[in-house]
Amino acid sequence: MKLQPVMPALVAGIHAKTMRRVAGIAGKLFALAWMAGTSPAMTGGLFLSVSILSSPASAAEAFVTAQGADSLSIVDLSKMATVATLPIGGKPAGIAVSRDGARAFVTSPEGKFLTVIDAATRKIEKRIPVEGGPLGVAASPDGKRVYVADLYGRRLVEIDLATGAQRSVGVGAMASGVAVAPDARTIVVADRDDNALSLIDAASFSRLATVPVGKHPFGVAIDASSARAYSANVESDDVSVVDLSARKVIATLKCGSRPYTVALAKGRVFVANQHGDSVSVFDAETLAPLETLKVGEYPEGLAASADGARVYVANWFSNELWALDAQTLKVVGKAETGDGPRAFGAFIRDAN
Amino acid sequence: MTFVLARRAFAVAALSLLSAGSLAGPAFAHGPSRQKVVEKIEIGAPAAKVWEIIGNFQDLNWHPAVAKTEGTGGNAVDAKRKLTLKNGGVIDETLTKYDADGKSLSYKIDAVDVKVLPVNNYAATISVKDDGGKSVVEWKGAFYRGFMNNDPPPELSDEAALKAVTDIYKSGLAALKTKAEGK
User: Fold this and answer.
1) A40 at interface of B, judged by CB pairs closer than 8 A
2) What is the 3-state secondary structure (H, E, C) of A218-269?
3) Helices A40-53 and A3-11: crossing angle, nearest 10°?
4) Which chain A residue shows the shortest CA-CA distance from B148?
């Protein structure tokens, strides 16, 4: 293929993932150019440079589950615009983008399956049936395993992506949010109707402890040092701060109405208040309240960019993704999404 | 701000809610897929006049389905009201937000039998905005269907919940228009 010698010069310094994507685009362009009778090398080269500059895969993206639309909205965060929509089905709610950005995992609680997506090419790789009501989802830091909470089955399901093997560990009633500690040792599950968190040992896949928290914990987050977990407690309007080694609540943060999810960035704790139409912000060290930011209607999914500069919030009722500056605590952008964005989980795919 | 178009309920068979049996679960349990309804109506009366009607949380008697409103707490947040419907059903509600300047109030249902209204975790906002001397009223709600697990019976499905709430908003807004326009 004539393209080969041109590629390294053009894509020098571009990440391998982007390169694969560009090669795919270039291949299609070559075919078009050949059919049109123009010089493949010239047309390919020209389009290639353009496609690198505008390559969606090189910008940070949000993978937003749009439950009402039964689809996944992919938002280019540099433009704050939805650039792709993938039909998912089964009322998608939970999302986890693997740490390396290679894959996205989407739960469909009513369809009872997990959709595995090649995040770079935005193609659906496969659907994996999961019994019950798969909702909360998180990937292991190495991207080899996915953990899915079964809302109705009092269990957390582990899926080995290489073999497809599934195993379960018992957790509490209405298991909702899932988070994996960055050190890969502990998995935290919000047992909503038990008002507790289950702590799971990742290696043995067994339940180590349950920690009573506020009323109806839904979203959970774990800090970068794997020391603390945070649960947003929908019915008690607060966040429980849990010391993972002591396995107990060390502080309770009063939030707005119906806190749903938690995200951490810039040494701060961000909480989406579903009925408050707001995001509460706390200092992670002193736990002092800093600010309450007005956002869209029914904020749900909340996640930070890898550098912590931005926090993104999906507003379920108003069908928007808002970008917040984690330092200045100002709203810096808004994007329209499909109907009913939930984005429940780690929905940010970082720039290469 | 972007608003969605009102979700229309699909054509479903007449609701046979009386045959639903005792499927109600714990008050806060619900399925995984929340629904939303937005209905709007233009009214040929000033927003202030319309707000005089809808802004009193203790009186929903302008709604054609409501026979009686009883409550405590006036228009203060956390005020309660009990609606007795003309068909005998009862709905207990709490005022969650009240913005007199913005002419908007929000409330939630504390307790309702799914045979009366096939929803769970229902919260709603009704507001009125000036539109050049006329006004536009918007009523919007978020809720889960009546059946809290997967695979609901048809009378407690998402479609049944959407239809029930949409019908309440449409009939209520039509009656509000008639009343406010003094016809």
Assistant:
1) no
2) EEEEECCCCCEEEEEECCCCEEEEEECCCCEEEEEEECCCCEEEEEEECCEE
3) 30
4) A152
* ipTM value for the complex: 0.75
Q: Which fold has domain B17-180?
A: Alpha-D-Glucose-1,6-Bisphosphate; Chain A, domain 4 (3.30.530)
Helix segments in chain A, DSSP class H: 3-11, 16-36, 40-53
- Provide the shortest C-alpha distance from residue A192 to chain B (in Å): 9
Secondary-structure breakdown of chain B: helix, strand, coil percentages, each rounded to the nearest 5: 20, 35, 45
- Residue B110 forms contact with A (CB below 8 Å): no
Nearest CA to B126 out of B83, B71, B176, B181 is that of B176
Q: Per-residue pLDDT for chain A (352 aa), expressed as one digit of tens each?
A: 333 333 333 333 344 444 444 444 444 433 333 333 333 333 333 333 333 344 445 689 999 999 999 999 999 999 999 999 999 999 999 999 999 999 999 999 999 999 999 999 999 999 999 999 999 999 999 999 999 999 999 999 999 999 999 999 999 999 999 999 999 999 999 999 999 999 999 999 999 999 999 999 999 999 999 999 999 999 999 999 999 999 999 999 999 999 999 999 999 999 999 999 999 999 999 999 999 999 999 999 999 999 999 999 999 999 999 999 999 999 999 999 999 999 999 999 998 6
- Give domain limits for chain A: 3-53, 59-349
Chain B CB contacts of A93 under 8 Å are 32-33
Looking at residue A180, its amino acid is V
- SS3 state of residue A8: helix
In what helix (H) or strand (E) does residue A70 lie, and over which residues does it extend?
none
- Which region holds residue A345: left if phi is over 0, alpha if psi is between -120 and 50, else beta? left
Measured torsion, CA atoms of residues A322, A325, A326, A329, in degrees rounded to the nearest 10: -90
Residue B26 in contact with partner chain A when CB distance is under 8 A = yes
Residue A30 C-alpha, separation from nearest chain B C-alpha, in angstroms: 41
Position B32 scores a pLDDT of 62
Question: Which pLDDT does position B175 carry in this prediction?
Answer: 97
Three-state DSSP at A216 gives coil
- What confidence tens digit (pLDDT) does each residue in B77-90 have? 999 999 999 999 99
Show the low-confidence residues of chain B (pLDDT under 70).
1-32, 183
Q: Shortest CB distance from A93 goes to which of B32, B35, B108?
A: B32
Eight-class DSSP state of A347: -
- From A29's Cα to the closest Cα of chain B, the distance in A is 37
- With an 8 Å Cβ cutoff, are B140 and A317 in contact? yes
Distance CA B45, CA B57 (A): 20
Give B60→chain A minimum CA distance, Å.
22
Fold of A59-349: Methylamine Dehydrogenase; Chain H (2.130.10)
Determine how many CB atoms are found less than 10 A away from the CB of residue A167.
11
Are B36 and A340 in contact (CB < 8 Å)?
Answer: yes
